[in-house]
């Protein structure tokens, strides 16, 4: 399952985001849709399920379909301990290395209302500038990686020159513990004109910062957007950074809980909710719901939590969703389950890549693929599109 790290200073709303994204869960066949351990839980990304367009009833196995929206599980990892200065030994260690290796991308939660200082201590709303919090995270991880690489650098240079080994491979070996590919290293190197052996510390740091952006893309969640002091900061953040989603994790948590209690109809990502029976709500509950409607939903279009998850997977990691089936006529698997699986796969993938994602054996015995909508064979260099229903024909 795809893994996303959720990180940020203390008190910015990480737990609220984590809980709201992972709370409303129904057991689905082979996945434990509950908290995996203290700092891991399953959340969903959403896409249109083809069942509506095809007017068929689906029986999802690896995912869930709610009113034509397919919910695909991803794993959230709660990455704690990142505070300014953490790379100097105040917080990063093997646990962080492990989280970093597993995370394909990061959600960086910041307090857009400016009511927590640089270390996460509560201060008067608006008195801290949240823009200062954005860069520290990249800086901390970069400096930490720098520490790892720099430690052996002179020895590595000698080794590369003596053994005539490609430097990119040596760096790859050094950083193998954090899940970075050789391709990522080669791509990052293109933006550093100096040759490896002549690198100064600044070149190495610049290289690592670029590498991090390529290998572990980061989404900024401007949380606490419901508070009045957040509005201006959200605008400034969006002007300065590319991937910024305004959010109110606390509002999402309240809405999900109210929906679970049967007080409102609401699905994560919705731009509105519907009160089931006004008689059942206390005055305080009505007031809270009105506040969320006015200051979050009407202003930003949603609470931002579902949008953040979808943006990480579909925009930052450039994934698409493909529905593999065994029988292209009935659009089902061997057991008759219609549209059983929704698979997240990289944009640009071909049918054979899909076969490998399903199972190595299927990849190895791949012959060709059929498009189940047209029942026509697709060429092996066909680029899969999101929503494709594909049957793999094996030898
Ligand atoms: N107004 C507002 N407050 C929020 C929001 N999200 C979280 N909070 C509040 O911010 C405080 C911290 O929230 P948490 O979710 O515990 O933050 P955290 O980042 O997990 O904190 P640590 O566990 O200390 O790392 C709590 O008082 C929350 O109620 C939000 O969207 N809007």
Give the helix tally. Answer: 14
Q: Can you tell me the CATH topology of the domain at 3-39 and 79-139 and 218-313? A: Rossmann fold
In CATH, the homologous superfamily of the domain at 3-39 and 79-139 and 218-313 goes by the name: P-loop containing nucleotide triphosphate hydrolases
Decide which structural class fits the backbone: alpha/beta
Characterise the protein shown here.
The chain has 395 residues and is α/β, with parallel strands linked by helices. Among the domains are: 194 residues, P-loop containing nucleotide triphosphate hydrolases (Rossmann fold, 3-Layer(aba) Sandwich), CATH 3.40.50; 76 residues, Beta-grasp domain (Ubiquitin-like (UB roll)), CATH 3.10.20.30. α1 runs parallel beside α10, α6 crosses α7 and α7 crosses α8. 38% of the residues lie in helices and 18% in strands. 38% of the residues are buried. α9 links the parallel β6 and β7. The strands form 3 sheets. Strands 1, 2, 3, 4, 5, 6 and 7 form a 7-stranded mixed sheet that branches. The chain has 14 helices and 14 strands. Bound molecules: guanosine-5'-triphosphate (GTP). Guanosine-5'-triphosphate binds next to α1 and α10.
């Amino acid at each position: 399952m795809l893994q996303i790290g959720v990180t940020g200073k203390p008190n910015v709303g990480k737990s609220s985001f984590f809980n709201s994204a992972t709370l409303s869960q129904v057991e689905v066949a082979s996945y434990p849709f509950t908290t995996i351990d203290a700092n891991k839980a399953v959340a969903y990304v959403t896409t249109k399920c083809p069942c509506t367009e095809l007017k068929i009833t689906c029986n999802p196995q690896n995912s869930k379909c709610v009113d034509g929206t397919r919910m695909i599980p991803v794993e959230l990892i709660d990455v704690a301990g990142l505070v300014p200065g953490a790379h100097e030994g105040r917080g990063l260690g093997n646990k962080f290395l492990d989280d970093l290796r597993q995370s394909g991308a990061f959600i960086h939660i910041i307090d857009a209302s400016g009511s927590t200082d640089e270390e996460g201590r509560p201060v008067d709303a608006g008195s801290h500038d949240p823009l200062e919090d954005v860069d520290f995270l990249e800086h901390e991880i970069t400096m930490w990686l720098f520490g790892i690489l720099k430690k052996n650098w002179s020895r590595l240079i000698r080794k590369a020159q003596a053994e005539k080994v490609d430097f990119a491979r040596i760096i790859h070996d050094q950083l193998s513990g954090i899940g970075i590919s050789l391709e990522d290293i080669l791509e990052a190197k293109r933006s550093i004109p100096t040759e490896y052996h002549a690198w100064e510390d600044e070149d190495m740091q610049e290289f690592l910062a670029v590498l991090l952006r390529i290998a572990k893309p980061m989404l900024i969640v401007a949380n606490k957007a419901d508070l009045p002091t957040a509005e201006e900061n959200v605008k400034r953040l969006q002007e300065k950074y590319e991937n910024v989603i305004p959010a109110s994790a606390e509002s999402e948590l309240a809405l999900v809980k109210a929906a679970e209690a049967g007080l409102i109809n609401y699905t994560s990502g919705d731009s509105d909710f519907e009160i089931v029976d006004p008689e059942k709500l206390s005055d305080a509950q009505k007031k809270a719901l009105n506040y969320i409607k006015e200051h979050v939903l009407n202003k930003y279009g949603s609470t931002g939590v579902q949008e953040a998850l979808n943006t990480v997977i579909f925009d930052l990691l450039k994934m698409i969703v493909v529905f593999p089936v065994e029988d292209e006529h009935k659009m089902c698997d061997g057991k008759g389950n219609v549209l059983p699986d929704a698979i997240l796969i990289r944009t640009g993938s071909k049918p054979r890549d899909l076969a490998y994602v399903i199972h190595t054996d299927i990849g190895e015995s791949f012959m060709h693929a059929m498009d189940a909508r047209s029942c026509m064979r697709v060429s092996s260099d066909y680029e899969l599109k999101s929503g494709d229903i594909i049957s793999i024909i094996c030898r």
